[in-house]
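Give me structure tokens for this 337-residue protein.
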Amino acid sequence: MALENNSNSIKISPYQAAALMLCFSLSGLAAFRPQGDSLAVCAAARTAAAAVGTVVFTLLPAGGGLRGRTGRRILAAVSGGYLLVQLVLLLSGMSAGLQFSYPDFYSLPAVTVCTAAAAAYCASMRLRGTARAACAAAVFMLVTLVLTAAGAADRFDADRLDLAVSGKGDAFIRQLLTAFSQMPELPLLAVLRSSIDRPRRAAAVWFAGHSLAWCAVLTVCAGVLGGQALTGIPSDTLSSYSRTAVIERFDALMLMMWALCSLLAAAGLLLGIRSCVRQWSEKAAACAVPLSAAAAAAAVMLLGTAADGFIPMTVLAAAMPAAALFGHAAGHDPETE
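Here you go.
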């Protein structure tokens, strides 16, 4: 339920905000590739990274960031740049995932341009419209994951969960750094904080949904696929194995839900970028969404699907507290609603 603040503007509810952030988590889960690491280690790393980010977000006091105009602008620039990089990574990851699973049907330029354009259109619904759509998308994606897991339940073998994978400690650190570099949910939540009712509750709800989804899905993938889950995209492979009396294969449904969550996640990033640009110029904010979408699409096509290799993970992880500080320091942004 949306609540009205003192300036007669309407904030989105914590559950709507959590659903928007959950679209990032579910999109990342659908495209996740373990690169040979144990799925149990991957799930633990993703949960640990989300827990650290949630604690940092919760402990930072509201209004505790920089309040000077110059300080706000600097943090806005850092935050906007961080969100733009995450948009590039999101578009690159979606293109790479589609080309990996369906190399004969999708091309990098077509996927990138169409996704960026659709995300810009979704962002035109403003924050309230995007958040409402995210609620439906998150629910549909969770239902799809439950049906997919149920359809493969007869193949589940608990003995496959304990895979003898060496170097679990190194794998955990590697996956933890990757998780931090690909987790824009909480920084975006901080940037949009002034437009969200009870943002700390939104962070807690997101953490619960994020952790449950990652742990449950990767556990099912490991139990059904065994060693096959260490390569490729486990959720996509699981959807091709899953069958019910009504649905023969779930891969097409999974693809549709993944694309929907990715679109709304990209739209959320564009709204966050516009909020950051508003700290510098009202006029520039009016065209921030289409320009940011075009810039991200151009970057993906120039760098290819290996765009994430050009961005140091440590820099992205270090940008998280800066984005959070900006979110606490920024004033109310009616344009994001």
